[in-house]
Amino acid sequence: MVKSGLMPSPTQRHVLSALVQNVPGVLAHISGMLASRGFNIDSLAVGETENPVLSRMTFVVVGDNRVLEQVRKQLEKIVTVVKVIDVSASDYVERDLLLVKVQAPSGPRRAEIRELVDIFRGRIVDVGPEELMIEISGRENKVQAFIERVRPYGITELVRTGRVAMVRSDSSAAAVGQNSRVIA
């Protein structure tokens, strides 16, 4: 018997977008609140929005619908949170960004790496005598696949952003009214 009214669901990744007041301490407050209640943040990206007094936090939490509901309830209690949307309940676009330095001495290995970059629609953003710095953006699985393809060449350094996501324009009006969870 499910008391919350939600049907049991398998554990899944939920992409949440929180519009928050752009004031010091908001990130620490929200991430601390989630951690203190045992919710793990799988991915986190924060940045200013089109309105400089607001920031958008996009984060991924793992769990069933009960976990999602608990996260939502906890976020409702935070004064600096303006609105929260469960982006993953709608049709959305998501992206991760990767910068990676790969060992690439001049010659055939460098050419092979350049071909991989083209296949993955990436860009070489810096060229050194023995390394290339590559930028890849896309869905998490694309970024992960690229990492696995260049790993044999020797990754010197790697940095990734957290996931960012937006509900698609043609479905946003319907999503806000039907599928997504909005906290005002």
TrEMBL record:
Taxonomy, superkingdom: Bacteria
Pathway per the UniProt entry: Amino-acid biosynthesis; L-valine biosynthesis; L-valine from pyruvate: step 1/4; Amino-acid biosynthesis; L-isoleucine biosynthesis; L-isoleucine from 2-oxobutanoate: step 1/4
GO function terms (MF aspect): acetolactate synthase activity; acetolactate synthase regulator activity
Catalysed reactions listed for this entry: 2 pyruvate + H(+) = (2S)-2-acetolactate + CO2
Any one of the GO CC terms: cytosol
UniProt gene name: ilvH
Assembly information from the UniProt record: Dimer of large and small chains.
EC number annotated for this UniProt entry: 2.2.1.6
rRNA processing found in the keyword field: no
InterPro entries recorded: Acetalactate_synth_ssu, Acetolactate_synth/TF_NikR_C, Acetolactate_synth_ssu_C, ACT-like_dom_sf, ACT_dom, AHAS_ACT, AHAS_small-like_ACT
Protein name: Acetolactate synthase small subunit
Source organism per UniProt: Stieleria bergensis
Domain ACT per the UniProt entry, residue ranges: 15-89
Keywords: Amino-acid biosynthesis, Branched-chain amino acid biosynthesis, Transferase
Family classification: Belongs to the acetolactate synthase small subunit family.
